[in-house]
Amino acid sequence: MSAHAGGYSADPRIRWIESLPWIVAIAAFFALPEYLSLGARILIYILYALSLDLIVGYAGIITLGHSAYFGLGAYVAGILAAKAGVGDPMVQLAAAAAAGALLGIGTGAIILRTKALTLLMLTLAITSVLLEIANKATALTGGADGLSGVVVAPIFGLFRFDIFGKTAYLYCLLALLLGWWLVRKMIYSPFGTSLTGVRENSLRMHAIGAPVYWRLVLVYTLSATIAGVAGGLITQTNQFVGLNVFSFESAGELLVMLILGGVGRIYGAFVGPVVYLIAQDLLAKQFPEYWYFGIGTMLVLVVMFARGGILGILDSILVKLRRRP
Amino acid sequence: MEAFFASLVSVAFHGAALGMILYVISVGLSVTMGLMGFANLAHGVFAMAGGYVLTTTISRFGVPFPLALALAFVSVAAASVVLERLLYSRLYTASDLEQVLFTIGLIFIAVAVARFIYGTLQQPVVLPDYLKGQFALLGRDFPAYRVFIIAFSAVMVGLLWFGVERTRWGAMVRATVDNRAMAQSVGIDTKRLFTLTFALGSGLAGLGGGLGAEIIAIQPTYPFENLVYFLVVVAVGGLGSLRGPFVAALLIGIADTACKYWLPQYGAFPIYVATIAILLWRPAGLFGRRA
After folding, report:
1. Domain membership flag for residue B258
2. Of A62, B28, B213, B281, which residue is most buried, by most CB within 10 angstroms?
């Protein structure tokens, strides 16, 4: 893992370079008004990837089922909006977060007692169960046709979701800012350090008396909550939910985004989705075969040669430059 | 009552055929994971490749069915040796996360290649005349091809068990699964053993994919869609054992068929719930040796 992973010993103050993503995001809002819906999607996936980074990168929990919490958040927000007639976006989002948190603590408390393949298998099985429920409970979820007719009222009764996606973009940006602040705060806290400790050597963490299991359950629940919020946001901006939110491909894609950016370094979760989703927007529709071939090859190459992802490569270039007189 | 009994027999029969296929495909995965500790999520790729080899050689080149089956085994095993030497072997000491990501990458590549060559349509299986029609047994009719699947897989399973339990190679494999460092220090060439075992496991997956092409449809998303099933077999059965995945595969094959027959409204839901329950009860699987 990288030296930049943060932790208790690192200086917790916000460095100037950390304002860069936000400056870019606001500049994009003014400079690229026709791409705001893609922009909102990217922001949501950054939040989603950030939640995954928390458990994969920091706590070292390998999961293939993170889409369970994202998908649940998406369906809860969607069902509230389309079936229960609750239009208030804040209420929808709170419900998505609560659903993510409840499922996170419920499943986390059970599956985190296991390790390695069993854990991996359980995360997959839980997502598959949710996919089956969403597929079969057509009265609530619309089944394979998806859930349409999602109505989102103006935020605080003031800001309507316009067709250009301006409100949605800023709304997602704010949600991301809040999520980032929370995750960053947590990673630089003693709690964050103890997570890294569990990842590096869980036996020793047990030996020094750290409540390893409860730490993992806590971080898993927090991560699930954030993923639930991201799911709620994707429903509100798309005004549609489909079964694909639970699919294995989508969980795989999220992992790809995170790995591409760099695991266990917060900003990897920012870089990955930007690169991935823009490339997807440009290439995937024209050349779907080449697209999958490309991401597969990229994953293999990253694992073989560039384990820190894009940010890891940048890091090593910076180190080489600094060494020169 | 007679109708119920008939459906019971039918479910058990079709379930056993599915279970046998699942076992032939997944046993290699169990051995790879137990022997090398490698989380090979791309195992389904080998099964899919076997399926494509079988369907293509029969429908395009008119190769007879038994030869096509042998080709599926040999070609997939050969290809897997190349992959193992070039790529897999570099990651034996890597973390679980890296192995998982690498093998997901392989799945993406395989899906793309399959889609590029064959398109998204399911590949039809052309069976020889002697495997079509019905086979009468104890006054009932069974589809001949499924009878063949069960019988053929049973022979393969018998050979495999004999190989692992009774031959020198098998003793070396068992020794290495139990304690790799000790096996190395008594002079077992574990590197060669890994390559051979990997090839055998992948070849069996290819064989299973070809044999089961009629039951588990051969299409580009095969490695994604069936991954859960293969992993369930291995996780529920227990890593590194031969007996565990066999019981697990039969259980899953029969349970899956029974659910589709009697409870179609629940889909695969009961299977997943049962898997979760079993893994919580016994995290190392039904016959797993490692806690």
Report:
1. no
2. B28
Write the DSSP string, A52-80: HHIIIIIS----S-THHHHHHHHHHHHHH
Q: What is the pLDDT of residues B261-274, one digit of tens each?
A: 888 777 778 888 88
Tell me the C-alpha to C-alpha distance, in Å, between residue A99 and each of A106, A112, A131, A224, A277.
Answer: 10, 19, 16, 9, 27
The domain tally of chain B equals 1
Q: Kindly state whether residue B77 falls inside one of the protein's structural domains.
A: yes
Task: Assess whether pLDDT exceeds 90 at residue B279.
Answer: no
Backbone angles phi, psi at B143, to 5 degrees: -60, 130
Q: Specify the pLDDT at position A183.
A: 92
Are B283 and A129 a contacting pair at CB < 8 A? no
Tell whether B96 lies on the interface with A, counting CB pairs under 8 A.
yes
Residues B50-87 pLDDT 10s: 999 999 999 888 888 899 999 999 999 999 999 999 88
Domain ranges in chain A are 16-323
Residue B244 in domain = no
Q: Which residue has the tokens 């408390």?
A: A109
CB B223, CB B48: distance < 8 Å: yes
What is the residue range of B213's domain?
10-220
Closest partner residue to A117 among B33, B110, B115, by Cβ? B33
Full-model pTM: 0.86
Q: How far apart are CA A175 and CA B121, in angstroms?
A: 42
The ipTM of this complex is: 0.82
Q: For chain B, what percent of residues have pLDDT higher than 90?
A: 31
Over residues A263-280, the mean pLDDT reads 88
Please report which confidence band the pLDDT of residue A266 belongs to, taking 50, 70 and 90 as the band edges: confident
Task: Choose the closest CB to A117 out of B116, B239, B265.
Answer: B239
Distance CA A112, CA A31 (A): 45
Which residues of chain B neighbour A303 with C-beta distances below 8 Å?
Answer: 91, 94, 98, 101-102, 105
CATH second-level architecture of A16-323? Orthogonal Bundle (1.10)
